[in-house]
């Protein structure tokens, strides 16, 4: 029998625990477009929708609460996160703003998604938070975050495959297509801390 692993897992929320395509219908509704999730070829949706960055920030400011409340769970994320809860430390590090903590907690409660810490940092730069929580690996959908975290922390990153994060990946970044694949990788990846070195 394999020994129980106790990992500190950093987990992004939007596009990782939530279904990555869930923002597209709301954006279409607001901007009169008929784009598909597959058309979102870059992470910056302002570029995809042909609007200014300021217009997108304003849209998210007005519609973020609804977006975070209505987003469906990504695949079997809820089931797998529940199965991890008693064996691993689950630290959610999200670019959501602190003012969205209540809607986030309500969503987690509705879908029975467990957590040990919920860190809403209001920024896409998650490096300082990942360092503060001493994460052993990170689950993410944004390519730039995956590259930064893997290089700076020298830890495995599991990057959920999306139209907007295509490209060549370094050795520590593993492209994944389902939460089932993530679950299997978490059990098999070599984690530095568990091998006796400092992560």
TrEMBL record:
One MF annotation (Gene Ontology) recorded for this entry: 5'-nucleotidase activity
Single Gene Ontology BP annotation: deoxyribonucleotide catabolic process
Keyword Hydrolase applies: yes
Keyword Hydrolase annotated: yes
Highest taxon, organism lineage: Bacteria
Catalytic-site annotation from UniProt: 12, 14
Keywords: Hydrolase
EC number: 3.1.3.-
Enzyme class: hydrolase
SUPFAM superfamilies for the chain: HAD-like (SSF56784)
One Pfam family named in its UniProt record: NT5C
PANTHER family: NUCLEOTIDASE YQFW-RELATED
Family: Belongs to the 5'(3')-deoxyribonucleotidase family.
Protein name as it appears in the record: Nucleotidase
